[in-house]
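$ ./design --mode recover --in tokens.txt
reading tokens...
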């Protein structure tokens, strides 16, 4: 049975930084909320909800957390799990993947951790194995070793700064200085989501931040985050978090 002491849920405060450090043991992580920039292996990587990461033992890395902070599940894998993925040798580049399936599995794992009954340990181990399998199934090892092009990082930053606005592909392509088709293909290849889905996720995350930190009405939150209406906010928010904005705020006690 998997040792629960090797599993933790971490919260990182908005705007904070974790200085360069390394781990004595290899570690998997899955981002549940927020986003952050990681510097690792001579690369800069942007992680958001659904990004699953592998950090080999002794690999120096640092993180800068965005204005929403972040929440991440971290766990140390069994040696046999690494064997299924091809062994530590093939993972030494600190590979990563991004997918909605990883986000959903992380949500299930968090829910199971709250059960604390005689079946929860076995259920948690099963979900962790699913996460490792999903990580291996993507076949993203080659892609993750590539450096994200500077023009694509510029596009990502532009979307972060303007997610509350009604952006269109023509305007984003002007920022990228690339054809719209090429832009759409490369953005999804490197960040795991189409541009529209990526922007919707950012809006949902900002809405969650406002719902938890202010007493603004749902309509005010919707308009501030770039949603067309209260109902538009509800549809996107529920698809992202599995709860309506009202239910989300209620669980927070706000």
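writing sequence...
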């Amino acid at each position: 049975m998997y040792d629960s002491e090797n599993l933790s849920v971490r919260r990182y405060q908005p705007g904070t930084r974790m200085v360069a450090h390394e781990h004595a043991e290899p570690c998997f992580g899955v981002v549940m909320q927020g986003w952050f920039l990681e510097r690792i292996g001579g690369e800069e990587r942007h992680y958001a909800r659904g990004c699953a990461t592998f950090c080999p033992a002794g690999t120096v890395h640092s993180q800068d957390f965005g204005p929403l902070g972040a929440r991440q599940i971290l766990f140390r894998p069994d040696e046999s799990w690494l064997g299924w993925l091809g062994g530590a040798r093939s993972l030494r580049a600190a590979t990563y993947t991004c997918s909605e399936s990883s986000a959903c599995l992380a949500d299930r794992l968090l829910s199971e951790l709250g059960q604390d009954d005689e079946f929860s340990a076995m259920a948690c181990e099963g979900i962790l194995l699913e996460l490792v399998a999903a990580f291996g199934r993507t076949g993203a090892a080659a892609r993750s070793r590539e450096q994200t092009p500077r023009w694509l990082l510029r596009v990502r930053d532009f979307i972060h700064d303007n997610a509350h606005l009604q952006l269109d592909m023509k305007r984003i392509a002007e920022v990228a200085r690339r054809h719209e088709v090429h832009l759409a293909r490369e953005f999804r290849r490197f960040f795991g989501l189409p541009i529209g889905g990526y922007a919707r996720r950012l809006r949902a995350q900002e809405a969650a931040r406002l719902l938890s930190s202010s007493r603004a009405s749902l309509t005010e939150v919707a308009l501030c985050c770039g949603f067309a209406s209260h109902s538009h906010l509800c549809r996107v928010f529920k698809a992202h978090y599995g709860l309506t904005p009202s239910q989300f705020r209620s669980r927070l006690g706000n």
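exit 0
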